[in-house]
Write a structure and sequence with these properties.
Keywords: DNA-binding
Protein name: DNA-binding protein
Low-confidence stretches: none
Number of domains: 2
GO molecular function, one term: DNA binding
Mean pLDDT: 90
Helix content: 10-25%
Pfam families: YceD
Oligomer: single chain
Largest sheet: 6 strands, mixed
Radius of gyration: 22 Å
Bound molecules: zinc ion
Number of strands: 8
Shape: elongated
Strand content: 25-35%
Amino acid sequence: MNIKLADLERRNGEPLPFKATLDEVDLKSRHHEIRGMTPVEAEGEAVQLGNLYYVTGKMKADVNFICARCLNPFTHHASVSFSETFAPEDDPILGEDEDSDILPLEGDEIELDALLQEDFLLAMPTFPLCEDDCKGLCPTCGVNRNEVSCSCTNERIDPRLAGLADFFKDSK
Ligand SMILES: [Zn+2]
Ligand SMILES: [Zn+2]
């Protein structure tokens, strides 16, 4: 979805509400933990203030993952906020601060789809867990320890260390 700059200018600082749907096929193929998902419904508003253009809003989708610890499928009701600022590409403000988050605008439209896709994918977990404290599978007998307790004598891992183990897996 694109927003025409002329439409924003005409509104004299009054926000322009918009709705957009992002196709899920492309998103799914770009994140290897996503097993399935609904299209992403985005809702937000765009406004021009002076030389700057602001686009903010929220995206929603149901995303299917497989839990990395217990291997059970689960659905994550994702809600991802976005907030982007743009300036015309020849605007001096873009050169002022290398760390600024202001994006250059080429042409006479704000092209939203690619940006929103990035924002959405960045918000997806690389180590999906059905619950933050998922107990995972028993390493000895393989039962799902969220559902049943077995009598195996596995060495108990301090939950804080388990979190650390996840962290290392995550950063691979
Ligand atoms: Zn789990
Ligand atoms: Zn067991």
